[in-house]
Design brief:
With about 375 residues, this protein is α+β, with helices and mostly antiparallel strands. The chain has helices spanning about 1-10, 45-60, 60-65, 90-105, 115-120, 140-155, 200-205, 270-285, 335-345, 360-365, and strands spanning about 20, 40, 80-85, 110, 130-135, 140, 160, 165-170, 175-180, 185, 190-195, 210-225, 235, 240-245, 250-255, 290-305, 310-315, 320-325. It has ten helices and 18 strands.
């Protein structure tokens, strides 16, 4: 979010002084680098659909647009497709989302349970009435996207500072900069909070209460006996568990659960897969009854506990303080549209895509904007 916003600010006004503060320039625990990189148009809210459409547009020319000298970041897009399995309880929401996606021009098709079993035998499922297949959905290399934006923003004049933001600084009722743990103060009339899972603690220093929690989410690399997976789409079960095919018989799998730990814990726990994920996986798709976990990692979701959607824009009571927070697991694919939108707001330029629905006033009013739960991963 920070690098994309910096890029778009300088794209709109090359004379700006833009500084990006990174608490760790290796991005070891950054949620972007720990993301599985999924991008899809299968959302129910029109704004979420439009952000993903813009993402695919950007990714199509990303290597050329972000080239710096001989460096051309390749996002390595794979359009293997995303298949969302639908049970009876989710049927109405699935058809509602499908209608909106098609209205927006997305290539998404409805498949019956029989068609899924015929086309993708390992995904033969119990208790499923059908599914929606986004033909162009797929996976992208998060590191290429992050570093591509960073290098391009730096080449355009952005400064990058490694340090911890100790607190935000306000003066005369508006934002005035940030204080770093080193003792240095960076003065600025505009500050963007793009701190991901650390966003709430930073916002609190200026009296802003964000409903954003750092929730642990573990991703598992799994070898299965399902056979070749090169022609399979990524599959998402009604309960939210998903499997992304990587190569023959190998999948990346994860499942966000209501009781996932809150806090900054990056411990990888292999046994949790066998105890919790595997029973659900086999219950729905019996073909996965033989498998073993070969690796994995743990990262953090920045979960907006109000409604699971982004918090975007200027905090009403603190002019100059802009938010890009609470993406709840789908932020990576939205960074392109969010960076552009925030830059346009900050510079008071016409907005290319109206994302005011996700504005922070709804946090103060406690008026949620919900996305169909099955689309949040």
């Amino acid at each position: 979010m920070g690098c994309a916003t910096a890029y778009h600010l300088l794209r709109l006004d090359a004379g700006l002084a833009v500084t990006v503060v990174e608490r760790d320039s290796t991005y070891r625990h950054a949620s972007t680098m720990l993301s599985d990189g999924n991008v899809r148009v299968q959302f129910n809210l029109p704004e979420n659909i439009a952000m993903s459409q813009f993402a695919f547009e950007v990714l199509g020319t990303f290597a050329d647009d972000m080239a710096v000298g001989d460096s051309r970041p390749d996002p390595g897009a794979r359009h293997q497709g995303n298949l969302f399995l639908v049970d009876e309880a989710g049927l109405d929401a699935a058809h509602e989302g499908l209608a909106r996606q098609r209205e927006a021009g997305c290539e998404v098709a409805w498949l019956s349970a029989a068609e899924i079993a015929e086309r993708f035998p390992p995904y033969r499922a119990e208790g499923i009435v059908g599914g929606t297949l986004g033909r162009l959905d797929g996976s992208v290399d998060p590191s290429a996207v992050l570093l591509g934006y960073r290098r391009k923003a730096a080449a355009m004049g952005a400064s990058f500072v490694e340090g911890d933001v100790r607190r935000l600084v306000a003066a005369r009722g508006r934002i005035a900069g940030v204080d770093l743990a080193s003792g240095e103060r960076l003065s600025a009339p505009v500050v963007v909070n793009g701190a991901g899972a650390w966003a709430a603690a930073i916002a609190e220093t200026v009296g802003v209460d964000l409903p954003v929690e750092p929730v642990m989410r573990t991703v598992y690399v799994v070898e299965t006996a399902t056979g070749p997976g090169s022609n399979l789409p990524s599959v998402f079960l009604p309960g939210g568990l998903y499997a992304i095919p990587e190569h023959d018989g190998t999948f990346v799998m994860a499942w966000s659960l209501p009781d996932d730990p809150v806090g900054y814990d990056f411990t990888f726990r292999r046994d949790a897969f066998y105890e919790r994920l595997w029973p659900e996986l086999v219950r729905v798709m019996p073909a996965f009854d033989e498998l073993r976990v070969t690796g994995g990692w743990t990262g953090l979701y920045a979960v907006n506990t109000l409604d699971g959607n982004a918090i975007l824009g200027e905090w009403p009571s603190t002019p100059g303080f802009f938010l890009a927070n609470g993406f709840s697991g789908h932020g990576f694919q939205q960074c392109h549209a969010v960076g552009r939108y925030l830059a346009e707001l900050i510079l008071e330029a016409p907005v290319s895509l109206d994302l005011s629905r996700f504005g922070p006033q709804r946090i103060l009013d406690e008026v949620p904007v919900h996305e169909h739960a099955g689309r949040i991963i």
